[in-house]
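Our preliminary data section would be incomplete without showing what the modeling component actually yields. Below, a chain of 392 amino acids is followed by its predicted structure, encoded as tokens that our downstream tools consume directly.
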Amino acid sequence: MTQNPITMSAAEVAAAVSSGKLTATQSVEAALARIDALNPEINAFTAITRARAMKHAANIDARCARGEKLGALAGAVFAVKNLYDIAGVTTLAGSKINRDHAPAQSDATLVQRLEAQDAILVGALNMGEYAYDFTGENAHYGPSCNPHDALYMSGGSSGGSGAAAAAGMAHITLGSDTNGSIRVPSSFCGLFGLKPTYGRLSRARTFPFVSSFDHLGPMARSAVDLAISYDGMQGSDAADAAQAPRAIEPVLAGLDSGLAGLRIARAGGYFTRGGHADSFAAADQVASALDVTASIELPEVQRARAAAYLITMAEGAALHLDRVRARPDDFDPDVRDRLIAGTMVPAAYVVKAQKFRRWFHDAVLKLFEEVDVIIAPATPCRAPLIGQKICF
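Predicted structure:
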């Protein structure tokens, strides 16, 4: 093919590989060449699984030559935030301390499921330390730079995931989202990102942050690629306690029907003030393009944000308390100080936050009796400069 495989969508690559117009090996070689060229500046990858990727690509090509049916992501390239286990690679979770851990013995469930769809893993991605980060700047491994302009943040904590996908170093990347860590880099890097329903995708064999909030999900340059990867990763997993047995609900088929019949509203109130005008203008442009005139206001959003941060501080501090006591100087100082602060949150505050969380959950679900989709800015600003301290 004359077109570079890495500039194609995952869906286009899979179609070309399955039809024999492209080989999986060609797709991987193109991705690895792009990683070699761009990663020294972008700093998205902390490990490249080159030999594994080439071996997997050769296997796919051999199966294709035998006339076997290939998976929905055949030959598409993906990479994962370095809190996902990859067999033979140490799971860093963005930290210095985890360097001392032995390499993972097996892959995270979501890695296995994407590979079962014949997607090809090319590496592990940079992230904020222990996922407690908003900017994509790692004190130990350096910042993941925004590929649109390397002077700017990629967003955190899945900064490497956002940068790699936006730079075309992978068709699909996987991140995690506790308080925005898929949504923020997707917004800053101009991507599609999905934070699925809690418990929908397995978190087995990934390093946790706040178990009651943690979600895993994909990022991509097209909504179709997002849907294909999400569909391929669904399914119950007894290894994740947050997952109840549930039916798979494919979303790819729903894209074909477009927005016909959906009740769409623009988020008002909190989502129209207090941030940068261009963020609100982008949401307004989407609403205008879809001829959306209805507006809806989510209740008590500022309290919801405060409750989420209280729970995050308390759970995160409990998880890392022994590490903070034993090796305080091996933490990013900002992360360490947030964790120390979390140890001081009164239990009564956490209980109140959890009670409010249940109320807010029910109140928001009630809104979806009136609408199907709510349009809102993902972040209150564009990507700031690297080194500019921010906290949403």
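The chain has two domains: 5-256, 301-370. The chain has a mean pLDDT of 95. Preliminary results of this kind motivate Aim 1 of the renewal.
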